[in-house]
Amino acid sequence: SQQGEEDPQALSIQEGENATMNCSYKTSINNLQWYRQNSGRGLVHLILIRSNEREKHSGRLRVTLDTSKKSSSLLITASRAADTASYICAPADRGSTLGRLYFGRGTQLTVWP
Amino acid sequence: EAQVTQNPRYLITVTGKKLTVTCSQNMNHEYMSWYRQDPGLGLRQIYYSMNVEVTDKGDVPEGYKVSRKEKRNFPLILESPSPNQTSLYFCASSTTSPGNLKANVLTFGAGSRLTVL
User: Residue A52 class from Cβ within 10 Å (0-12 exposed, 13-18 middle, 19+ buried)?
Assistant: First the structure.
């Protein structure tokens, strides 16, 4: 499958702890995008990292990309209860037509107060 | 406010009754796309559009039609809905296509929950 595959499927932590989620994919990519989805709601973009980048930061978020291992990780530092959501990775397949992002099923993060 | 607006947000209909889900964006984006989300599955692309009058099939186009007559609008049409089209639908847009070297993130609508009886 060309879709991203997140690991773990579910993660439960206390407020203040860091949360790390991983994404693996199988093809060559132009970029990889991370999104957040609260239950049953629309997706909100978090970060886009291009294939020639290795690390990117945005506030409490840090994303890394290892194209040799075909994997990416999303780190959320000092988690808050409001971070509870599903985190979804989406690799943009270089080999496909220009219109394709392949969304994973997501990691369900629960942050307890 | 920059946004993607979908309507209706919720709809219950019956098999065979044609319906249209509208999608409009106010960001002058070239790229627009429809996805469906089902339990246990990632978002699957139905159709996408690279620009006005340019549309193409995604991974699950059967039973759907789209049109892109204006840059801001990208309606999804179900000519004869069936129960297997019961799903949560999302419209999204971006400056250019995700696979482009200058790709940008997608902005999503709030979703349209469709039930076909």
Answer: exposed
In sequence order, what are the residues at sequence separation of 6 or more whose Cβ sits closer than 8 angstroms to the Cβ of residue B42?
A3, A4, A88, A102, A103, A104, A105, A106
Instruction: Please answer yes or no on whether A100 and B43 come within 8 Å at the CB atom.
Output: no
pLDDT at A25 over 70: yes
> Which chain B residues touch A if contact means CB-CB below 8 Å?
31, 33, 35, 40-45, 48, 50, 56, 58, 88, 90, 92, 97-101, 103-111, 113
CB contact under 8 A, B31 and A45: no
Q: Report chain A's mean pLDDT, rounded to a whole number.
A: 91
Residue A98 clears pLDDT 80, i.e. is over it: no
CA–CA distance, A33 with B112 (Å, rounded to integer): 23
Please name the residue that has the structure tokens 């990691």: A107
SS3 A81: helix
Report phi then psi at B15, rounded to 5: -55, 130
Residue from B84, B74, B93 nearest B114 by CA: B84
Considering CB atoms only, which of A30, A45, A103 is closest to B99?
A30
Give how far Cα B57 sits from Cα of B31, B62, B80, Å: 14, 9, 18
Mean pLDDT of A46-71: 96
